[in-house]
Amino acid sequence: MAGQIDARLSELGIVLPNPAAPAANYVPFVRTGNLVFTAGQVTFDAAGKLTFVGKLGRDFGIDEGYQAARLCAINVLAALRRACDGDLDRVQRCVKIVGFVNATPDFADHPKVINGASDLVVAVFGDKGRHARSAIGTGSLPLGVATEVEAVFEIA
Predict the structure, then answer these.
(1) Core-most of 6, 52, 107, 142, by most CB within 10 Å?
(2) The domain over range 4-19+29-155 is classified in CATH as 3.30.70.2190
(3) Considering only CA atoms, which of 15, 64, 20 is closest in space to residue 42?
């Protein structure tokens, strides 16, 4: 039944934005066979404003980082919706999430931050949202954002 995922997003109070236009020589997603690979998504809010600019361990704590990663995942889903021709019910499963955390050298809670993305995907897709994952600390990220998330999904 089409619209189940849209209904779930509504229940969660999530409105997916229009995907951001690429800022360089890449595309927002690539479909190959039954897989969709999203480009890394950063912390643009629904109005297109860049948020969560700074480093974990200096400018932000774990809770704010979690919200930043959650916002990245919302933007991943926006790109995924376009890859699915507007029908997120085509998603068979989330295969993998890769999350990057712009952090100070002594920050060690990258997985707790990227849980913001993982928890959102599971909340939206249920068991189909359970995935393999990497949470990687970096010295910087594009535009100085705190987090960036990319993902791979299997679709029908």
Answers:
(1) 52
(2) no
(3) 20
With cut-offs at 50, 70 and 90, classify the pLDDT of residue 1: very low
Task: List the Cα angle 14/20/21 in 5-degree steps.
Answer: 160
CB 93 within 8 A of CB 34: no
Q: Has this prediction a pTM greater than 0.90?
A: yes
Contact 25, 85 (CB under 8 A): no
Q: Check: CB of residue 113 under 8 Å from CB of residue 134.
A: no
Neighbours of 144 (CB within 10 A): 14
**More confident: 18 or 1:** 18
Nearest Cα neighbor of 64 from 51, 76, 77 is: 51
- As a whole number of Å, the end-to-end CA separation of the chain is 13
- pLDDT > 70 fraction of the chain, expressed in percent and rounded: 99
Decide: 110 and 98 in contact? Cβ < 8 Å: no
